[in-house]
């Protein structure tokens, strides 16, 4: 859906431009939210900027099969990170770096999900789908919007080659 269609949909369904929910302004628990692009009082999906460019990171792995011929000296595997710019107006993708003979490209898909708080209020979020992940995380913003209670847990962070990067309480 393009920007004009999104705005028309929000107006037609009496959705607030900030949180895209149908409650009244005085009942909105999301008044502290701002557009992540310009910090304006609207949802980033309704942000209007014809010169806007969004930068994505694309992980290009030229060693998908983990052949020993293509590994680096430290055994990590040959990977390059490419910055890709998505021109929001023309929706064309331009790669800023090139990768020779790339065997596979990894994209992490996203999905729009409707989550409910304890009072039954619904909120639209975007979720990152990673089938290889062993843990799930939620943003501080989502915790505040859904009014969730926190529980403490110990998390071990491991970096490249399984090197422990630290502990988070």
Automatic annotation (TrEMBL):
It comes from the Eukaryota. This is DUF1758 domain-containing protein. It comes from Trichonephila inaurata madagascariensis.
């Amino acid at each position: 859906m393009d920007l004009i269609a999104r705005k028309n949909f929000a107006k037609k369904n009496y959705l607030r431009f900030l949180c895209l929910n149908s409650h009244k302004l005085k009942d909105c628990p999301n008044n502290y939210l701002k557009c992540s692009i310009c910090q304006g009082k609207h949802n980033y999906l309704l942000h209007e900027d014809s010169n806007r460019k969004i930068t994505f990171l694309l992980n290009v792995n030229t060693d998908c099969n983990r052949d020993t011929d293509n590994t680096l000296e430290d055994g990590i595997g040959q990977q390059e990170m490419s910055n890709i710019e998505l021109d929001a107006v023309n929706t064309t993708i331009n790669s800023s770096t090139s990768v020779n003979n790339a065997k596979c490209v990894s994209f992490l898909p996203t999905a729009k999900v409707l989550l409910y708080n304890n009072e039954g209020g619904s909120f639209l979020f975007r979720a990152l789908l990673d089938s290889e992940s062993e843990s799930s995380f939620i943003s501080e913003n989502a915790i505040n919007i859904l009014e969730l209670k926190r529980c403490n847990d110990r998390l071990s962070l491991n970096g490249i080659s399984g090197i422990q990067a630290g502990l988070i309480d």
